[in-house]
Design a protein that fits this description.
single chain, mainly beta, SH3 type barrels, 5-stranded antiparallel β-sheet, globular
Amino acid sequence: MDNESWSRWVGQVVVVDTDSQYVYIGTLASVLDNFLEMKDVDVHDRGEGLSTKEKYVMEVRRFGVKPNRREVSVRKSTIVSLSRLEDVLLY
């Protein structure tokens, strides 16, 4: 996907799932050639804690993002999926 295709996501609170154990939830600030830049980000290590990634993301959807980083750059080549937090379905 070229950088222009990402433009509709900029300014949105998004969930970035990567091929690592980390999931990133925050505001997409900009898209560079190799990185997404995010602001006010909750960086969650899926290896810590007892809940699944899906349950964790649903909790963030219910209660809001609690950032633990002001800014984060995520390498685009590691991204498995991207969605708006508001599109996360609760069950």
